[in-house]
Amino acid sequence: MKSALMDRAINKPQIRSAGQLTALKRDKYLYLMLIPFLVYYLMFYYLPFGGLRMAFMDFKPFLGMSGSPWVGFDNFIEFFSGPYFWRIMRNTVMISVYNLLFAFPIPIILAILFNEVRNKAFRTAAQSISYMPHFISTVVIAGLVVNFLSPSSGIINVILEKLGFDSIYFLTKPEFFRPIYIIQGIWSGAGFSSIIYYSSLMSIDSAQYEAATIDGAGRFKQILHVTLPGLLPTIGIMLLLSIGNILNVGYEMIILLYQPITYETADVIGSYVYRLGMENASYSMSTAVGLFNGLISLILVMTANRISKKISDVSIM
Is the pTM value of this prediction over 0.90? Predict the structure, then answer.
């Protein structure tokens, strides 16, 4: 009896490895399809980690990594004590908070509305129209925003003039920049983002809606008591990811729309890093700011994940 158990224990790793080899042979084409993605992440996400050393150097391109002098935390100290630190932190956090308050719920509402449409042809057409802006280039969207808000020929100012108001050059007014950025973000991204929530709605058991109907629940109560609870896990995960990216504002659109006169409300960490690295060639400082941004984002997502795990069953790790 003992010898049989010992033989089984000895052979167990061999059986497991044989099973893994069989699974590998069976799914070899799937693993081959993974190779391009692994190479992509290795080249553009993991190998660049070595460049983070520049944050602790006075990097000189002609001297390279090995010849540039080490300065420790001097770049971080200069950034924290600089004149723009509080401005870019305030702008970044405020734009992200506005996104969470106004842009985050829109895809959820859209998904629920799509789910409530019973005419399949109309629903498909409405979804396709809402998805389209996502596939438009950021540069093109920025051009549309500039044209719509043009003080001479923009449709917004044409309407204002018809109503008896003076035309406004919105893109030179710091107080208008954040609303413009949030609204264009909702228009361009809400439809595509609703796909995630709509897919989650498709997984809700139809028997729950039937039971709610039998209990006398109307469409609105079905949304409150069946649809929203079914969406909560997905909403929780997406909210965690949004909190983790609270400092990663989409700076591409900001760079295309802002001007020196609107830096007061438009300049964020991403645009500041761009100016430091690309315009001022201050590679060490831009790397230090980027590293600070990444560390804060990591702390935020881990904190939000721990809080979510304590108060609910939703977490990402």
Answer: no
Nearest to 93, CA basis, from 257, 255, 296, 260: 296
- What's the angle, vertex CA 192, arms to CA 191 and CA 194, rounded to 5? 70
Identity of residue 229: P
Angle between helices 105-116 and 228-244 (to 10 degrees): 150
Identify residue 14 by its one-letter amino acid code.
Q
Considering only CA atoms, give the Rg of the chain: 26
Q: 88-142: per-residue pLDDT in tens?
A: 999 988 998 899 899 999 999 999 999 888 888 898 899 889 989 989 888 999 9
Q: Give the relative orientation of helices 138-148 and 174-202 as an angle to the nearest 10 degrees.
A: 130
**Closest to 55 measured CA to CA, from 304, 288, 315:** 288
CA distance 220 to 223: 5
Strand partners, 208: none
